[in-house]
User: Fold this.
Amino acid sequence: MAAMDLLPSMPFISFCFNFFLLSCFYPNQIFGNAEKIGNENNKIRGMFVFGSSLVDNGNNNFLQNKAKANYLPYGIDFPLGPSGRFTNGKNIIDLLGDHLNLPTFIPVFGDPSTKGNQTVLGVNFASGGSGILEDTGSMAGEVMSLSKQIKKFEEVTLPELENQLKSSSNESLSKYLFVIGAGGNDYTLNYFLNFPKVNLTVRAFTANLTSGLFTQLKKLYSLGARKFVLMSLYPLGCSPGTISASPRPQSMGCNKFLNLAAYMFNTNLRLLINDCKTEMPGSDLVIVNAYNIVRDIIRNPALEGFTDTRQPCCQVLSLKEGGNGISCKTGGSTCEDRSKHVYFDGMHPSEAANVALVTEGFSSQLVSYVYPFNIGELVQI
Assistant:
Protein backbone atom coordinates (compact mmCIF):
# COMPACT_ATOMS: atom_id res chain seq x y z
CA MET A 1 0.00 0.00 0.00
CA ALA A 2 1.38 3.41 -0.94
CA ALA A 3 2.04 5.91 1.83
CA MET A 4 -0.41 8.43 0.32
CA ASP A 5 -3.22 5.86 0.67
CA LEU A 6 -3.01 6.44 4.41
CA LEU A 7 -3.66 10.18 4.28
CA PRO A 8 -6.56 10.85 6.71
CA SER A 9 -9.55 13.00 5.90
CA MET A 10 -9.78 16.57 7.15
CA PRO A 11 -12.67 15.68 9.51
CA PHE A 12 -10.47 13.01 11.06
CA ILE A 13 -7.60 15.48 11.53
CA SER A 14 -10.06 17.91 13.06
CA PHE A 15 -11.43 15.50 15.61
CA CYS A 16 -7.91 14.36 16.57
CA PHE A 17 -6.92 17.96 17.26
CA ASN A 18 -10.10 18.74 19.14
CA PHE A 19 -9.93 15.57 21.20
CA PHE A 20 -7.97 17.50 23.78
CA LEU A 21 -10.30 20.43 24.14
CA LEU A 22 -11.60 19.13 27.45
CA SER A 23 -12.03 21.08 30.65
CA CYS A 24 -12.46 21.09 34.44
CA PHE A 25 -10.62 19.48 37.30
CA TYR A 26 -11.68 17.08 40.01
CA PRO A 27 -10.36 16.72 43.57
CA ASN A 28 -7.78 14.11 44.47
CA GLN A 29 -8.77 10.48 44.57
CA ILE A 30 -9.02 8.85 47.99
CA PHE A 31 -7.09 5.64 48.42
CA GLY A 32 -7.16 3.13 51.22
CA ASN A 33 -4.24 1.99 53.34
CA ALA A 34 -1.75 0.30 51.04
CA GLU A 35 0.10 -1.47 53.85
CA LYS A 36 -2.23 -4.44 53.52
CA ILE A 37 -1.06 -6.49 50.56
CA GLY A 38 -4.12 -8.42 49.35
CA ASN A 39 -4.31 -12.19 49.49
CA GLU A 40 -1.40 -13.77 51.32
CA ASN A 41 -1.23 -16.47 48.63
CA ASN A 42 -0.95 -13.91 45.88
CA LYS A 43 2.47 -13.96 44.27
CA ILE A 44 1.99 -10.41 42.97
CA ARG A 45 2.31 -7.46 45.34
CA GLY A 46 0.83 -4.92 42.95
CA MET A 47 1.27 -3.14 39.64
CA PHE A 48 3.21 -0.36 38.03
CA VAL A 49 1.30 1.08 35.10
CA PHE A 50 2.50 3.09 32.10
CA GLY A 51 0.69 4.34 29.03
CA SER A 52 -2.16 6.55 27.87
CA SER A 53 -5.84 7.23 28.62
CA LEU A 54 -6.95 3.60 28.40
CA VAL A 55 -4.93 2.85 31.55
CA ASP A 56 -4.81 6.34 33.12
CA ASN A 57 -6.39 6.36 36.61
CA GLY A 58 -6.30 10.15 36.91
CA ASN A 59 -2.75 11.43 36.45
CA ASN A 60 -3.91 14.11 34.05
CA ASN A 61 -5.90 15.70 36.86
CA PHE A 62 -2.55 16.84 38.21
CA LEU A 63 -1.04 18.02 34.92
CA GLN A 64 -1.52 21.31 33.11
CA ASN A 65 -3.28 19.94 30.08
CA LYS A 66 -6.70 19.73 28.47
CA ALA A 67 -7.01 15.94 28.29
CA LYS A 68 -9.18 15.27 31.31
CA ALA A 69 -12.08 13.05 32.27
CA ASN A 70 -12.79 14.41 35.74
CA TYR A 71 -16.41 15.42 35.27
CA LEU A 72 -19.75 13.66 34.97
CA PRO A 73 -20.83 11.53 33.24
CA TYR A 74 -17.31 10.05 33.41
CA GLY A 75 -17.15 8.00 36.59
CA ILE A 76 -20.92 7.79 36.91
CA ASP A 77 -20.57 4.12 37.94
CA PHE A 78 -17.22 4.44 39.72
CA PRO A 79 -17.18 4.25 43.55
CA LEU A 80 -15.30 7.56 43.82
CA GLY A 81 -17.24 9.33 41.09
CA PRO A 82 -15.39 11.24 38.35
CA SER A 83 -11.72 10.49 38.96
CA GLY A 84 -9.97 11.04 35.65
CA ARG A 85 -10.71 7.57 34.29
CA PHE A 86 -11.90 7.76 30.69
CA THR A 87 -14.92 5.51 31.18
CA ASN A 88 -18.13 5.24 33.18
CA GLY A 89 -16.75 2.91 35.86
CA LYS A 90 -13.62 0.84 36.32
CA ASN A 91 -10.92 0.74 33.70
CA ILE A 92 -8.76 -2.27 32.89
CA ILE A 93 -6.24 -1.47 35.63
CA ASP A 94 -8.92 -1.41 38.32
CA LEU A 95 -10.39 -4.68 37.05
CA LEU A 96 -7.00 -6.35 36.84
CA GLY A 97 -6.45 -5.29 40.44
CA ASP A 98 -9.69 -7.07 41.34
CA HIS A 99 -8.40 -10.27 39.74
CA LEU A 100 -5.19 -9.92 41.75
CA ASN A 101 -7.16 -9.38 44.99
CA LEU A 102 -5.47 -6.05 45.61
CA PRO A 103 -7.13 -4.25 48.53
CA THR A 104 -7.30 -0.75 46.99
CA PHE A 105 -7.06 1.04 43.67
CA ILE A 106 -3.56 1.69 42.36
CA PRO A 107 -2.69 5.32 43.25
CA VAL A 108 -1.61 7.79 40.60
CA PHE A 109 1.86 9.29 40.56
CA GLY A 110 0.58 12.86 40.23
CA ASP A 111 -1.28 12.80 43.54
CA PRO A 112 0.97 14.43 46.17
CA SER A 113 -0.08 11.75 48.67
CA THR A 114 1.43 8.96 46.55
CA LYS A 115 4.56 8.46 48.57
CA GLY A 116 5.77 6.31 51.44
CA ASN A 117 3.49 3.37 52.12
CA GLN A 118 1.17 4.49 49.32
CA THR A 119 3.70 3.10 46.81
CA VAL A 120 3.69 -0.45 48.15
CA LEU A 121 0.82 -1.63 45.94
CA GLY A 122 2.38 0.04 42.93
CA VAL A 123 1.83 3.35 41.17
CA ASN A 124 0.03 4.36 37.99
CA PHE A 125 2.04 6.74 35.77
CA ALA A 126 -0.20 6.66 32.68
CA SER A 127 -1.11 9.97 31.09
CA GLY A 128 -4.07 10.44 28.76
CA GLY A 129 -3.01 11.72 25.34
CA SER A 130 0.60 10.59 25.69
CA GLY A 131 2.50 8.15 23.53
CA ILE A 132 5.70 6.27 23.03
CA LEU A 133 7.11 9.23 21.12
CA GLU A 134 8.06 12.36 23.02
CA ASP A 135 5.99 14.79 20.96
CA THR A 136 2.75 12.80 20.88
CA GLY A 137 -0.08 14.72 22.53
CA SER A 138 1.91 17.93 22.79
CA MET A 139 -1.05 20.01 21.61
CA ALA A 140 -2.81 19.12 24.86
CA GLY A 141 -0.21 20.84 26.97
CA GLU A 142 1.65 18.88 29.62
CA VAL A 143 1.45 15.11 29.08
CA MET A 144 3.95 12.53 30.24
CA SER A 145 5.41 10.43 27.45
CA LEU A 146 6.28 6.81 28.14
CA SER A 147 9.95 7.64 28.69
CA LYS A 148 9.06 10.45 31.10
CA GLN A 149 6.76 8.13 33.03
CA ILE A 150 9.55 5.59 33.41
CA LYS A 151 11.97 8.32 34.44
CA LYS A 152 9.57 9.38 37.22
CA PHE A 153 9.32 5.76 38.27
CA GLU A 154 13.10 5.43 38.48
CA GLU A 155 13.93 8.75 40.12
CA VAL A 156 10.98 9.31 42.46
CA THR A 157 8.99 6.15 43.16
CA LEU A 158 11.74 3.52 43.31
CA PRO A 159 13.60 5.18 46.22
CA GLU A 160 10.28 5.46 48.10
CA LEU A 161 9.49 1.80 47.45
CA GLU A 162 12.93 0.56 48.43
CA ASN A 163 12.69 2.48 51.67
CA GLN A 164 9.29 0.94 52.43
CA LEU A 165 10.24 -2.64 51.55
CA LYS A 166 13.76 -2.40 52.99
CA SER A 167 15.14 -4.11 49.91
CA SER A 168 16.71 -3.20 46.58
CA SER A 169 14.54 -2.87 43.50
CA ASN A 170 16.24 -5.87 41.88
CA GLU A 171 14.93 -7.99 44.75
CA SER A 172 11.41 -6.57 45.02
CA LEU A 173 10.25 -5.64 41.51
CA SER A 174 10.00 -9.24 40.34
CA LYS A 175 6.87 -9.46 42.52
CA TYR A 176 5.06 -6.72 40.61
CA LEU A 177 3.30 -6.65 37.27
CA PHE A 178 4.44 -3.97 34.85
CA VAL A 179 1.48 -3.06 32.65
CA ILE A 180 2.09 -1.00 29.51
CA GLY A 181 -0.69 0.32 27.29
CA ALA A 182 0.70 2.80 24.78
CA GLY A 183 0.96 3.43 21.05
CA GLY A 184 -2.51 4.32 19.81
CA ASN A 185 -2.06 8.06 20.26
CA ASP A 186 1.19 7.88 18.32
CA TYR A 187 -0.94 7.16 15.27
CA THR A 188 -4.09 9.24 15.85
CA LEU A 189 -2.42 12.24 17.48
CA ASN A 190 0.92 12.15 15.73
CA TYR A 191 1.47 10.20 12.51
CA PHE A 192 -1.93 10.70 10.87
CA LEU A 193 -2.37 14.15 12.36
CA ASN A 194 0.96 15.31 10.90
CA PHE A 195 0.95 13.06 7.85
CA PRO A 196 1.76 15.75 5.24
CA LYS A 197 4.94 16.52 7.20
CA VAL A 198 5.94 12.93 7.96
CA ASN A 199 8.39 11.48 5.47
CA LEU A 200 7.75 7.89 6.53
CA THR A 201 5.48 5.10 5.42
CA VAL A 202 3.21 3.73 8.10
CA ARG A 203 5.30 0.55 8.11
CA ALA A 204 8.52 2.48 8.79
CA PHE A 205 6.79 4.59 11.43
CA THR A 206 5.54 1.42 13.12
CA ALA A 207 9.02 -0.06 13.15
CA ASN A 208 10.36 3.07 14.85
CA LEU A 209 7.51 2.96 17.34
CA THR A 210 8.03 -0.64 18.41
CA SER A 211 11.78 -0.07 18.57
CA GLY A 212 11.14 2.81 20.98
CA LEU A 213 8.88 0.61 23.07
CA PHE A 214 11.56 -2.10 23.19
CA THR A 215 14.05 0.46 24.50
CA GLN A 216 11.68 1.38 27.34
CA LEU A 217 11.01 -2.26 28.21
CA LYS A 218 14.74 -2.89 28.49
CA LYS A 219 15.02 0.15 30.75
CA LEU A 220 12.37 -1.25 33.10
CA TYR A 221 14.11 -4.61 32.98
CA SER A 222 17.41 -3.01 33.98
CA LEU A 223 15.66 -1.57 37.03
CA GLY A 224 14.41 -5.00 38.11
CA ALA A 225 11.09 -5.54 36.30
CA ARG A 226 10.52 -9.14 35.26
CA LYS A 227 6.78 -9.64 34.65
CA PHE A 228 5.23 -7.56 31.87
CA VAL A 229 1.69 -7.22 30.53
CA LEU A 230 1.60 -5.47 27.15
CA MET A 231 -1.77 -4.24 25.90
CA SER A 232 -2.02 -4.38 22.13
CA LEU A 233 -3.67 -1.53 20.26
CA TYR A 234 -7.45 -1.63 19.97
CA PRO A 235 -9.06 -1.54 16.49
CA LEU A 236 -8.50 2.19 16.23
CA GLY A 237 -10.71 2.55 13.18
CA CYS A 238 -13.81 1.11 14.85
CA SER A 239 -14.35 3.70 17.58
CA PRO A 240 -17.51 5.82 17.26
CA GLY A 241 -15.49 9.03 16.92
CA THR A 242 -13.46 7.65 14.06
CA ILE A 243 -16.48 6.28 12.21
CA SER A 244 -18.51 9.48 12.60
CA ALA A 245 -15.58 11.58 11.37
CA SER A 246 -15.36 9.66 8.12
CA PRO A 247 -16.49 11.75 5.13
CA ARG A 248 -18.58 8.77 3.98
CA PRO A 249 -19.42 6.74 7.09
CA GLN A 250 -20.51 3.22 6.22
CA SER A 251 -23.26 1.40 8.03
CA MET A 252 -21.03 -1.53 8.95
CA GLY A 253 -17.47 -0.41 8.25
CA CYS A 254 -14.49 0.79 10.24
CA ASN A 255 -11.63 3.04 9.15
CA LYS A 256 -9.42 0.48 7.43
CA PHE A 257 -6.31 2.68 7.43
CA LEU A 258 -6.29 3.13 11.18
CA ASN A 259 -7.02 -0.55 11.70
CA LEU A 260 -4.17 -1.48 9.37
CA ALA A 261 -1.79 0.68 11.40
CA ALA A 262 -2.96 -0.95 14.64
CA TYR A 263 -2.61 -4.40 13.08
CA MET A 264 0.97 -3.62 12.00
CA PHE A 265 1.86 -2.43 15.49
CA ASN A 266 0.34 -5.51 17.11
CA THR A 267 2.17 -7.81 14.71
CA ASN A 268 5.46 -6.15 15.61
CA LEU A 269 4.54 -6.38 19.29
CA ARG A 270 4.25 -10.13 19.05
CA LEU A 271 7.59 -10.38 17.24
CA LEU A 272 9.07 -8.24 20.01
CA ILE A 273 8.51 -11.07 22.47
CA ASN A 274 11.33 -13.07 20.91
CA ASP A 275 13.75 -10.15 21.16
CA CYS A 276 12.76 -9.57 24.77
CA LYS A 277 13.40 -13.17 25.72
CA THR A 278 16.89 -12.92 24.19
CA GLU A 279 17.91 -9.54 25.59
CA MET A 280 15.94 -9.72 28.86
CA PRO A 281 16.75 -13.19 30.29
CA GLY A 282 14.53 -14.24 33.16
CA SER A 283 11.69 -11.98 32.09
CA ASP A 284 8.16 -13.06 31.15
CA LEU A 285 5.88 -11.05 28.90
CA VAL A 286 2.21 -11.46 28.06
CA ILE A 287 0.43 -9.66 25.23
CA VAL A 288 -3.28 -9.07 25.66
CA ASN A 289 -4.60 -8.76 22.13
CA ALA A 290 -7.24 -6.11 22.72
CA TYR A 291 -7.61 -5.75 18.96
CA ASN A 292 -8.91 -9.28 18.49
CA ILE A 293 -11.02 -9.25 21.65
CA VAL A 294 -12.80 -6.00 20.75
CA ARG A 295 -13.07 -7.00 17.09
CA ASP A 296 -14.83 -10.23 18.04
CA ILE A 297 -17.20 -8.36 20.36
CA ILE A 298 -18.08 -5.99 17.51
CA ARG A 299 -18.69 -8.92 15.16
CA ASN A 300 -20.81 -10.90 17.65
CA PRO A 301 -21.93 -8.49 20.38
CA ALA A 302 -24.76 -10.69 21.69
CA LEU A 303 -22.24 -13.33 22.82
CA GLU A 304 -20.93 -10.87 25.43
CA GLY A 305 -24.30 -9.28 26.18
CA PHE A 306 -23.84 -6.10 24.11
CA THR A 307 -26.40 -4.53 21.82
CA ASP A 308 -24.57 -1.41 20.60
CA THR A 309 -21.06 -1.49 19.16
CA ARG A 310 -21.05 1.78 17.21
CA GLN A 311 -22.64 4.54 19.29
CA PRO A 312 -21.10 6.18 22.37
CA CYS A 313 -23.10 5.66 25.54
CA CYS A 314 -22.61 9.21 26.76
CA GLN A 315 -23.75 12.33 24.96
CA VAL A 316 -20.97 13.40 22.61
CA LEU A 317 -21.19 16.68 20.75
CA SER A 318 -20.13 16.70 17.12
CA LEU A 319 -17.83 19.27 15.58
CA LYS A 320 -20.87 21.09 14.19
CA GLU A 321 -22.35 21.20 17.69
CA GLY A 322 -19.20 22.66 19.20
CA GLY A 323 -17.79 19.42 20.53
CA ASN A 324 -14.97 17.19 19.33
CA GLY A 325 -16.81 13.99 18.47
CA ILE A 326 -14.92 12.10 21.21
CA SER A 327 -15.50 13.46 24.72
CA CYS A 328 -18.63 13.22 26.81
CA LYS A 329 -20.49 16.49 27.14
CA THR A 330 -19.97 17.94 30.62
CA GLY A 331 -23.02 16.92 32.63
CA GLY A 332 -24.50 15.29 29.54
CA SER A 333 -26.84 12.35 29.41
CA THR A 334 -25.93 8.67 29.10
CA CYS A 335 -27.60 5.66 27.52
CA GLU A 336 -30.25 3.85 29.52
CA ASP A 337 -28.26 0.62 29.98
CA ARG A 338 -24.53 1.34 30.09
CA SER A 339 -23.71 -2.38 30.23
CA LYS A 340 -24.96 -2.84 26.66
CA HIS A 341 -22.58 -0.39 24.98
CA VAL A 342 -19.04 -1.30 23.91
CA TYR A 343 -17.95 2.36 23.93
CA PHE A 344 -18.70 4.88 26.64
CA ASP A 345 -17.52 7.96 24.74
CA GLY A 346 -16.29 8.39 21.18
CA MET A 347 -13.05 6.49 21.78
CA HIS A 348 -12.89 4.69 25.13
CA PRO A 349 -14.54 1.39 26.13
CA SER A 350 -17.31 1.17 28.69
CA GLU A 351 -16.73 -0.60 31.99
CA ALA A 352 -18.63 -3.60 30.57
CA ALA A 353 -16.22 -3.81 27.63
CA ASN A 354 -13.28 -3.44 30.01
CA VAL A 355 -14.64 -6.37 32.03
CA ALA A 356 -14.68 -8.52 28.89
CA LEU A 357 -11.13 -7.45 28.00
CA VAL A 358 -9.68 -8.22 31.42
CA THR A 359 -11.58 -11.49 31.80
CA GLU A 360 -10.15 -12.77 28.53
CA GLY A 361 -6.72 -11.36 29.27
CA PHE A 362 -6.59 -13.04 32.65
CA SER A 363 -7.92 -16.48 31.81
CA SER A 364 -8.29 -17.08 28.05
CA GLN A 365 -6.53 -20.07 26.52
CA LEU A 366 -6.73 -18.62 23.00
CA VAL A 367 -3.36 -17.49 21.64
CA SER A 368 -5.28 -15.06 19.44
CA TYR A 369 -6.35 -13.29 22.66
CA VAL A 370 -3.30 -13.77 24.90
CA TYR A 371 0.24 -14.62 23.90
CA PRO A 372 2.15 -16.71 24.81
CA PHE A 373 -0.12 -17.40 27.81
CA ASN A 374 -2.60 -15.52 29.97
CA ILE A 375 -2.08 -13.12 32.87
CA GLY A 376 -3.37 -15.67 35.38
CA GLU A 377 -0.53 -17.98 34.40
CA LEU A 378 1.98 -15.12 34.42
CA VAL A 379 1.28 -14.22 38.03
CA GLN A 380 1.94 -17.81 39.14
CA ILE A 381 5.43 -17.92 37.64
Notes: Residues 1-41 have pLDDT under 50 and may be disordered. The chain has eleven helices and five strands. The first helix runs from residue 10 to 18.
